[in-house]
Amino acid sequence: MNIxxxxxxxxxxxYKIKCCIGKSGINKVKKExxxxxxxxxxxxxxxxxxxxxxxxxxxxxxxxxxxxxxxxCTDSRSxxxxxxxxxxxxxxxxxxxxxxxVYDLIINIKxxxxxxxxxxxxxxxxxVAKKNYQRTEGCIAISKKDFLxxxxxxxxxxxxxxx
Length: 163
Hints:
Elements lengths: L1 E4 L3 E4 L2 E4 L7 E2 L9 E2 L1 E10 L13 E3 L4 E4 L10 E3 L6 E3 L9 E5 L15 E4 L11 E3 L1 H7 L8 E4 L1
Parallel strand pairs: 1-14, 4-5, 6-7, 12-13
Antiparallel strand pairs: 1-2, 2-3, 6-11, 6-14, 8-9, 8-10, 11-12
């Protein structure tokens, strides 16, 4: 089954869900830090979640609890570029464990993942939207309520098409 994303909606099975994308829109040629969401079809990776904030429904995709020392490398100089890391870390990386709620639920979108290319972009996630659906730095964001609705429908063969 395929999730379809455009600039305003996530479409999956019988759901049409409001979403937001990167501040620079959808771009076929993505670069690190360009604030765009990559165009294409991508597999989904792990579901990361804050166990202290989320009662996770049953799901068929692999999941991992977010711990305080977890991050995601966004530094093209590192061999772990666009991969989960553990802090302390000597290269630039995003914290996954945050005071804000936007990373309470995260699914890694496997953009630039299987054969990672430097400077092509990293940390493209499906995550929780801010209340006003403020544009992201390149991720796709939906409400926590909608996220919890679709989690039980996802499986390892689910992909995301961004157009």
